Amino acid sequence: MKKPQPVEKQEAAKLSSIKIEQLSRQPIIESSISKSEDGKWVIHKTIITDIKPVSYFEKVLA
User: Fold this and answer.
1) d(Cα 45, Cα 62) in Å, to the nearest integer?
2) How far apart are CA 31 and CA 35, in angstroms?
3) Which of 13, 25, 27, 41 is the most exposed place for a label (fewest CB within 10 A)?
4) Along the 62 residues of the chain, how does pLDDT read in single tens digits?
5) Does some domain include residue 46?
């Protein structure tokens, strides 16, 4: 049986400024899981926060 070859260390991926800008435009997703007071239910709560300028909505709703 052959021994596995050593894995070379990979450099940390560097993000371009364009990619960082794209990531900063994505919605913020928060998730929490809790148990109900009586202990019978699991509550999974997800909050999606998306920030857009007012001018965006004025154009979309016009």
Assistant:
1) 33
2) 14
3) 13
4) 666 666 665 556 788 888 888 888 899 999 999 999 999 999 999 999 998 889 988 888 88
5) yes
